[in-house]
Amino acid sequence: MGKRLIFLLGGARSGKSYTAEQWAQEHGKQVLYVATAQAFDDDMRDRVKQHQADRPDHWHTLEAPRQTSQAIADFQGDYDTVLLDCITFLTSNILLDLPETVTQTEANNITLGQIDALLDVYNQSDATWLIVSNEVGMGVVPPTRLGRFFRDMLGRANQRIASHADEVLLLVAGLPWKLK
What is the CATH T-level fold of the domain 5-178, as seen in this structure? Predict the structure, then answer.
């Protein structure tokens, strides 16, 4: 099996990370786990610790909440599988770094620039990549400017990744639905 880009989407607790991790355990020999979450409170610190405990010890972990593509490109290691979890946190991190005066178009363009950089690193690698993200376009329109910015930024990022992916899965209640 040659390298592939597999994109896993779903809502919160839909099983997307679990499915990606299972795929990596079954098919990957040298796995690079790229984490984009930041632990700003005790609850998130507990969640990160649980995720770390659930991963096999032989996986390499790269904490890369910002400039993720550069961090992956700079990582020194021989891996056949990259599991990036997740685009949702990466997008949130980008949004939190933007000035309050940013426009939606500017925010989208900054996000898509980072997604394109990730796709460039993928194209230069020989590894299969599993990218995890939340699907946020099936709910109500957020009532705040910040919420709308985030939803639109993530929606555009998801579209960009899906258009380049070899396989796209939507997870609902732990069940994968193959979209592409």
Answer: Rossmann fold (3.40.50)
Question: 159-170 burial, b if ≥16 CB within 10 A, otherwise e?
Answer: ebbbeebeebbb
pTM beyond cutoff 0.85:
yes
Using DSSP bridges, classify how beta strands 31-35 and 5-10 pair: parallel, antiparallel or unpaired.
unpaired
What percentage of the chain's residues is helix, strand, coil (to nearest 5)?
A: 45, 20, 35
Alpha-carbon distance of 10 to 53, in angstroms, equals: 23
Which residue among the candidates 27, 51, 60, 164 is catalytic per the annotation? 51
Identify the helix (H) or strand (E) that includes residue 133.
Answer: strand 128-134
Q: What is the pLDDT of residues 158-178, one digit of tens each?
A: 999 999 999 999 999 999 999
**Residue 58 known to be catalytic:** no
Closest by Cα among 103, 130, 98, 117 to 157 = 117
* 3-class state of residue 143 by DSSP: coil
Domain spans of the chain, in order of start: 5-178
